[in-house]
Amino acid sequence: MNHFAPAAALAIALMSLVGPAAAWAQPKPGPTLAFGGDVMFDSPTRRAVSRVAAEVGEAEAFRLMFADVAPALRAVDVAFVNLETPVSPQYRQRPEGRPAVFWATPQLLRSLRTAGVDVVSIANNHAYDQGARGLLDTIEAVAAEGLVGVGAGRDPQSAAATMIVQASGVDIAFGAWSQGMNRGLPANERGLVQMAMVRDGTMSPSLAEARRRAPLVVASIHWARETGFRLGREELAIAQRAADAGADLIIGHGMHVPDRSRWLQTTDGRRVLLISALGNLSGLMRARREAVYQAQASVRDAPIVVVRTTWSAAGRLQPTSVAVVPCWISRPLPSAPWWPESGQPLARPVSILAEIGRLRRAQCGAECERRIAAYEHRAELQARLLVPGMSDDHPPGQGLSALARPGVPGWPRETDKPVPIMAAPPAGTPALRPHPFTAHAQRVVRATPTIVTDAQEEASGTTLTEHEPVQRPSASAYFRGALFPATFGHRATMPQRVDAVALSQLTQLLRGDPRLRVQITGYRGNEEAAAPHSLASARAEEFKARLTARGISAGRIQTRAGRSQGRRPGEAHLVIRLWPPRD
Length: 583
Fold this sequence. Notes:
Layout: E1 14-16, H1 20-25, E2 29-39, H2 43-56, H3 58-65, H4 70-74, E3 78-83, H5 106-115, E4 119-121, H6 131-144, E5 148-150, E6 152-153, H7 156-160, E7 163-167, E8 170-178, E9 194-195, H8 203-213, E10 216-222, H9 233-245, E11 249-253, E12 258-259, E13 262-265, E14 271-275, E15 277-278, E16 280-282, E17 304-311, E18 317-325, E19 327-330, E20 348-351, H10 352-362, H11 366-386, H12 390-393, E21 444-447, E22 463-465, H13 475-480, E23 482-484, E24 486-488, E25 495-499, H14 500-512, E26 517-523, H15 534-549, E27 557-561, E28 573-579
Parallel strand pairs: 2-3, 2-16, 3-4, 4-5, 8-10, 10-11, 11-14, 22-25, 26-27
Antiparallel strand pairs: 1-18, 2-17, 6-9, 7-8, 7-21, 12-15, 13-14, 17-18, 19-20, 23-28, 24-25, 26-28
């Protein structure tokens, strides 16, 4: 096992994930990876950074943004985050009643690279915030700053291609996909650039190809639902498909709060680590000032997860231990006597253990003691969520002291000193030489070819939404033939909007009973009377591709063109009918 020694990269918990005997039977260490959450540049963060920039300059303000967590990111071989903002000029404003629209300058990327980040995911629901130009600018800016970007490209093939990063002489493949998006591209911008989507059917073939080319495959998936959401059956099914296709490690983003990690068992007998959700790494999201004192996970919990790998007997890398570097997104405070720049409008992630050390040195009485207790709770909460098995081994509510267990050192009183937290080896095991961490040596990157499916060739301009005004069909309605909540543009085969919950419900019905058959009927609108009858068939076929991309066999799906007015007279629409199984 590796020793995690840099001072500020203090791990709150480390557990052997394969058992002490197995871990020490395979002592050859592989690369160590760090994963951070969503990097957002929302309006509150933008205002706070601007205020600091007025005093110290823009470059220094952005450097300070990630300075407190930089030691943890620099201490590993490869660091990965989700870039949840376009890096481009502001081409678009936020429409009234619509989700937030983000944009940032290249200084944000520069600060990430300076802090130690190597790879960023661009596949998320804000990728199209600034349109096709904004996404193209982002791809170019990421490359210009020396970062590796995954999950977007000029065409579907390059968007879904995994990128192989060479660290310490070892190839690691990274790929990224998004389950949904806030807004699509207008018709005149489609085809200029592409984000990798789960529904495009590109994830499994891309990961399978990556597994043939690299001993470690990492898949990043940006979930469609946010804030307080727990992974449901559809999300777990997506993660399972990624694992079965070849991923060794799956990282979830987009929920904005940390969620529980778990193991997945693949069809070929492998165990794949799923970090369900990391929360945010930056962005205030208008969280209340006293959020640090709340009991449950917050949008300002910003853990960094460190995953160590070892070589298996089969010659592949496998995750063998997980550590959590507990962090918190600090918001501007009118008074913070434990900070040397007291009173500055800071908005950035801070190391919780470094904060506890600063608070103890400040000796600011009850205020500091209250915040220390709150930080200890946040650190314990993050560890319980993100280290598999932590909740089962330790009773809650005991703060940092709860993390002491046989074989794992307890926390010292001076928590701002280096503390390598690791399981003790079995008696008689030869001591291992400490593994030197690569201090960001030059990375060798190459694109991995991707198998292209028919579904992948479709342009991705659909918005998944939970707020479609059409009533969602029930299971019984589908047996009678139900209007599916999707809307179409004039003569467009791909829907402009699809109700994500209705699509999930339909998918679960089909997965729940493999004997069910489905008929998809497409209809033209009145204004499309002069359009070929094949337009309606094409709409049904496009929706069929969405179901097959979710694992539904094409042999169970029948498509047809409707010749009557259907269930929504005068408007383009889809009708879904299920056949019950025959007894």
